[in-house]
Amino acid sequence: MLIVESLSYQYQESEKFFLKNINFRVEKGETLAIIGESGSGKSTLIRLIYGLLDYNHKMQKIEWNGVLLKGPSYNLIPGHSMMKYVAQDFDLIDFVSVGENVGYYISNFDLPKKHQIIDQALEAVEMQAYKAVHPKYLSGGQRQRVAIARALALRPELLLLDEPFSNIDQHLKIKIRERIYAFCKEHKMSLIFTTHDLSDAFYSSDQILVLKDGQIVQIGAVKNVRNFPKSAYVAQLFGYVALIPKEKAAALMIDAENDLVIYPEEVVLDDASDIYGTVTKVHYQGRDYICTMEVDEVEILFYSETEILPNQYLPIKIINYRTIE
């Protein structure tokens, strides 16, 4: 289990705190996604966990299975042996093959076993066909996958990935993130990864930790965070959403003491409704349309399976909403 308590961090040359009072736990075999905008502190947090940065371990705590983890000032080689960290620069060796990169830190004592491990790791990121190729001939996304495979091959207790899917094409990303997630589950590896793309977190994690300006604004199961966002910032991370000030909620026939969050799937067309609005925008997105409607100066979003033309005056029903502070 990873335990992080009261963790704060500021670079020596700066008065600004990049992390403030961070507290969370990750159980064995669990996956945690850290999501936030650029500059929110995501990369700094996993670098602290891996031991690349020093922190005040007398007042704060980063602990793995009961052992207090310290920074580079207390370790001859920065980092912790039970963990592997894949940074955004990949750090591959260009003059040896992909297979040799993946197996670089694996003992040659049992070569058949070593090659089996290499093949399994490459399969997890769909790079088996490039085993004999040198990394210098690969694209950025392919290099990223090789770096992840090298970490998977070592089967660490905790795997730390910094923006692991940022260079991977969309059509491959969905399949690869599922394979990585399954690999970690199969080998009982805990996984922490950072991302600014909520779809990565939504489909590939047990918990989500939302960072803003170096502080945790919400943490929990992905479903719970989406269904019960604590702020407009969190709600907007999930894509399309209507944020309704409490003063305007009456336009939707809702008596609210706080601001409202309404997702598009919670708004339906209903001829029996007394709430009418004018469609202002319609965008096709493959399987359906995302429609924007104005109801008494209140902007609402909803999905439609059939095309709706702008300027139509239609009745809607709000089937669910939640309040935020």
UniProtKB/TrEMBL annotation:
UniProt keyword terms in alphabetical order: ATP-binding, Hydrolase, Nucleotide-binding, Transport
E.C. designation(s): 3.6.3.30
EC class name: hydrolase
Boundaries of every ABC transporter domain copy: 2-238
GO molecular function: ATP binding; ATP hydrolysis activity
InterPro entries assigned to the protein according to its UniProt record, in alphabetical order: AAA+_ATPase, ABC_SmlMolc_Importer, ABC_transporter-like_ATP-bd, ABC_transporter-like_CS, P-loop_NTPase
Name this protein carries in UniProt: Fe(3+)-transporting ATPase
